[in-house]
Amino acid sequence: MAINSAPESSLLSLLYRSYPAAISPDETEPDLLAANPKIFPRITYTDAEQADIKTWLSTHADLQEVLTKGDKATASSRLASLNTHLATRTTIIGNKPSVADVAVYALLAPVVEKWSPEERTGEQGHHHIVRHVDFVQNSRVFSLQIPEEEKVGIDLNDVKFVPKPIDPKAEKERKKKEKAAAEGGAGAEKTVVVGQTKPAAAAPEAAAAGGKAEGKQKEKKPKKEKQPKPAPAPAAPPSPALIDLRVGHILRAVNHPNADSLYVSTIDCGDAPGSDNTSVDEETGKTVRTVCSGLNGLVPLAEMQGRKIVAVCNLKPVTMRGIKSAAMVLAASPRVAEGEDSHAGPVELVTPPANAPAGDRIFFEGWEGEPEKQLNPKKKVWETFQPGFTTTDALEVAFESAPVPVAKEQEGKPAVGKLVAKSGGVCTVKSLKGGTVR
Known about the structure:
Elements: H1 11-18, H2 32-39, H3 47-69, H4 72-86, H5 99-114, H6 117-121, H7 127-138, H8 168-187, H9 204-217, E1 245-255, E2 263-268, E3 279-280, E4 287-293, E5 308-312, E6 318-320, E7 323-325, E8 328-329, E9 331-333, E10 348-349, E11 361-364, H10 381-385, E12 389-391, E13 397-400, H11 405-408, E14 416-421, E15 436-437
Antiparallel strand pairs: 1-2, 1-5, 1-11, 2-4, 3-4, 5-8, 6-7, 9-10, 9-15, 11-14, 12-13, 13-14
Helix pairs in contact: 3-5, 4-7, 5-7
């Protein structure tokens, strides 16, 4: 069966393309469980269903790891279990749509596409996984934005073998017996093998005698007083300086081959040769990063060619529709009310000072400091400070501390700090005043 390896996951791009109000393209590791009610706002979930969604998101992550490792035996077992689960259900959790269905679809659609007709619906095939993939990609309930040419081609009339329907009661009884057997095995006593057990504890009298004899031979050393440990140095307060902002020079940009909303840019960010997440550009010999950005349709492709931009260089790399993106291009857009489309445009790229070279450090005045090598997504540094990124009436990019509680509380810091280059000069935009920058 064609399950040698997992495909490059397109889950993130599929989510923000289909549900822009719930998933931001800036998020590299969105909280899918928290996003579920935003994706399906008209669906009410019980606590048990929420728990099922959480469990299946974890199962999805495990299956992705197994497929990536190419463990055929384990993958076949997991797929068979999923197929059996779907035999009596329309969706992963029963009959309600959830983000778990979308996650499983994004992982398995490329796998199912490679299966032969026999692997799909033969006697040993996975009929119910195939049915689930077809349902998710075409149902209005999910409303996934997938071009027809990217959908998995499934002929509903081409069924090689019709499996017997599974009796829900029999399936429930089978799982009950498996659970009982597992619990029984866990509680069973271990067999003791003669000659392999640990030596029996010495009798109390022998232990006491031994203790006395030892006491005669060795005198107890006086205990040294423990010195108090020095107090740890106070942690530095969080700052937007943790974000690695640099001047980037776009050598060229093209349309993403698998996503209408994305550009793929080759950008010189001043990295040393051999740095993580870089490659050597064949045309120029420069060390470059490949960057996917959701600017197609918002910024003309011509404006992306041979120009300088400001790049965020220490976000965790993310794969977008099969291409690994190792940075983010900073751009400004108007602020919108909650619930409105935050990606409708217009959008203007942030422009660094004309004389600033590629790789030049960019920082906010009054917030100087060293960036982290790579931001930990769990600490949400970018998400914490980005709300303060703004454009002024003078069309300068700045950091305003008021919208960021952790920044507003720090004494001696400016209320507004301009975004400047280490070599001098302020970063600007064309015309957007009071916009948000991300």
